[in-house]
Specification:
Layout lengths: L1 E2 L8 H7 L4 E6 L15 E14 L5 E5 L4 E2 L6 E7 L5 E6 L7 E3 L9 E2 L1 E4 L11 H4 L14
Antiparallel strand pairs: 1-7, 2-3, 2-6, 3-4, 5-9, 6-7, 8-10
Length: 152
């Protein structure tokens, strides 16, 4: 999970509470460098609305996301790459990785098609902040205001 600078000091429970009634928008793979940047080269594949509260207990005892509807109808065609979570007022809270493999959000589908159902299977919050598919790339490039990280 990459949190916007506005909520960087918030605890995980505070972030979950911020999402009550908010949205989770799944985008195609051209992800911005951080959640503070606008999404400009990615198509909206599907949008989920969080219930209120946004997280509740699941069958295995862990907290699970709660959506008003799951599945939802996809808006366009593409391969999911990331998701942006927003508060109910539209304020961006965080970005999550999406897809198969070691991603935070798993969908039932590998790709999205207009009019087809899209379903979130799981949402696991990775508080480390890196992108699991390419830590050597994403964690090795300078971010504005930060020194260049060392990658061995």
């Amino acid at each position: 999970m990459n949190v916007t600078s506005e909520f960087a000091q918030s605890s995980l429970d505070e972030i979950k509470a911020l999402l009550d009634g908010g949205t989770l928008t799944i985008y195609s793979v051209a992800r911005p460098v951080s959640a503070d940047h606008a999404v400009d080269r990615s198509a909206v594949l599907a949008t989920f609305t969080f219930a209120s509260p946004a997280f509740g207990p699941s069958a295995d005892g862990f907290e699970a996301p709660a959506f008003v509807a799951n599945p939802v109808t996809a808006n366009s065609v593409g391969t999911p790459g990331f998701a942006r979570a927003r508060k109910a007022d539209g304020t961006t809270v965080a970005d999550f990785s999406v897809g198969p493999g070691p991603r935070e959000i798993k969908l039932a589908e590998v790709s999205c098609s207009p009019g087809a159902p899209t379903r979130v299977v799981s949402l696991k919050v990775d508080t480390d902040g890196g992108w699991p598919e390419r830590p050597d790339y994403y964690d090795a490039h300078p971010r504005p205001g930060y020194s260049m990280p060392k990658v061995f």
